[in-house]
Amino acid sequence: MNTEAKPTRKYKRYDPAFKRSAVELWLAGGKSAQAVAAELGISVQAFKTWKQPLAVAPPASGAQSVEELQAENRRLRRELQYALRQREILKKTLGIFATPAENALNG
User: What is the dihedral of CA 42, 43, 45, 47, to 10 degrees?
Assistant: First the structure.
């Protein structure tokens, strides 16, 4: 009698968030399923079965009008200018605090 037990095959279980992000990476990345599956260390067959229920459908009316895009661009440019001004102020302030006072040297 052969008393050796056959090793049972253990299947990896992936949580839905991992599956969703893997499918999004595949669809948005422009790489083949084989390449993405190899990078993530999963089988291509399992990877392709995840695609059907998890593939994100394109938004029905996601296209913005030109005016909306221009308004958003103007808003983002204003925010960038504000952030750049803040950075320059902070750099100048740091420069003031970093230089030693003259009377501190003569101490």
Answer: 10
SS3 content of the chain, % helix, strand, coil (to 5): 65, 0, 35
CA proximity to 27, closest of 46, 61, 54, 60? 54
Q: In 3D, which of 19, 27, 13 has the Cα closest to residue 54?
A: 19
More confident site: 85 or 22:
85
The 10s digit of each residue's pLDDT in 33-80 is 888 888 888 888 877 787 777 665 555 556 678 999 999 999 999 999
Residues 6+ apart with CB under 8 A from 55: 23, 27
Q: Provide the residue type at 45 as one letter.
A: Q
Domain locations in the chain as residue ranges: 12-57, 66-99
Q: pLDDT band at 32, cuts 50/70/90? A: confident
